[in-house]
Amino acid sequence: YYRRFIEGFSKTAKPMTKLTQKGIKFDWGETKENVFQLIKQKLCSASFLALPEGKEDFVVYCDASHKGLGAV
After folding, report:
1. Per-residue pLDDT of the chain (72 residues; tens, 9 = 90+)
2. What residue spans define the domains of the chain?
3. Which of 3, 5, 50, 66 is the Cys-Cys partner for 9 at CB 3.0 to 4.6 Å?
4. Cα dihedral sign for 43, 49, 55, 60?
5. How far apart are alpha carbons 52 and 49 in whole angstroms?
6. Model pTM?
7. Can you say how many angstroms the Cα of residue 15 is from the centroid of all Cα atoms in its chain?
8. How far, CA to CA in Å, does 14 sit from each of 32, 39, 44?
């Protein structure tokens, strides 16, 4: 769930994600600990989502196709 709030989450968490693969020995070393601490730090400093106050106009940019929908 939180991956969408952290830019580059999949690249950052890759060492930890590999631990979930079948046949991989679970070895929590210094690299995984550093990645874990970095993810925690990014979560604590991540921007939060909020509804606009409605006092000013705003523009929503979106894109749609037959396979998906995206908006910023």
Report:
1. 778 778 889 999 999 999 999 999 999 999 999 999 999 998 888 676 677 787 888 888 877 777 776 665
2. 2-71
3. 3
4. positive
5. 9
6. 0.60
7. 15
8. 9, 11, 20
